[in-house]
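ZP: hey, is the heme C complex queued? I don't see it on the tracker
AM: it wasn't, my bad. submitting now with these inputs:
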Amino acid sequence: MSRLKQFSVGVAIVLVLLLSACGGGTTGEVPNKDNSGEGTESSEAVALYKKRCISCHGTELQGRAGPNLQQVGAKLTEEEIVDVVSNGRKGMPKFESSLTTEQIQSLAAWLAEHK
Ligand code: HEC
C-alpha cells in the first residue's frame, strides 16, 4: 500500500519536472512576436523589473515588501524614480552599481508611465 503511494508520488514528481522543463523551452508563448518594432525600451525595462524588482514590488507592481508601483508615475517624476533606484531609500536597495545608467533610465521611463 505505502509502496504504491511512494511510487505514485515519484511518478508525479517526474511528471512535474518534465512539464516544467518543457515549459521553459520552445512550447511557451511568443510574447515579443507581435510588437517587435516598437516598445523595445519598455520590454527591456520589463525584463529588468522581473529580474531585479519583482521580489519586492510584486508581479503586477502591486507591492510586497516594497510599495505598490502601479501609480508611481503620478507620485514621482522620472528623475525622482531614477534617484530612488540609483541611490536607494530605507528598505529600497540602491542599484547604481549593479545596473547601468541606461538600464535605470529605461526602468524609470517605464515606471513613470504608470499613472
Ligand atoms: C529588497 C526589496 C526591494 C527591491 C529588490 C526593490 N525595491 Fe523598490 N522599494 C523597496 C522599498 C521597501 C521601498 C520603500 C522605500 C521607502 O519607504 O522610502 C521601495 C521604493 C521604491 C520606489 C519609490 C516608490 C514610492 O512610492 O515612492 C521605486 C520607484 C522603486 N522602489 C523602484 C524599484 C525598482 C525599479 C526596483 C528594481 C530595479 C526595485 N525598486 C527593487 C524595496 C525594494
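AM: back. Residues 41-115 form a domain with the Cytochrome Bc1 Complex; Chain D, domain 2 fold (CATH 1.10.760.10).
ZP: great, adding it to the tracker
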